[in-house]
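Thought: the user wants the 3D structure for the chain below. I'll pass the sequence to the structure tool as-is, report back what it returns, then summarize two notable features.
Action: structure_tool
Action Input:
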Amino acid sequence: MEQIKISLKKEQIEFIRNHSKFGFKDRSSLIRKAVEVLKENIESDNLKTSAKILSEIYSNDDRTKEWINDSNKSWPDDN
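Observation:
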């Protein structure tokens, strides 16, 4: 694994030092998990934003509604 040097506030360092209280075997595993959770949250927020934008486009654009309805008609039926 690669190593990096970072700067943290005292409160953050104290939190990391207590890694074992949170079930982490070492400081690095706590940091890796924190970065992973942050990444997932950012990606989720991006998806929610994209879905909201697409929903607004769909609800305000009759041509898009027609195109989607037409494509649904030609979609194979599982019955």
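Final Answer: Structure generated. The CA atoms of residues 33 and 39 lie 10 Å apart. Residues 28-62 form one domain.
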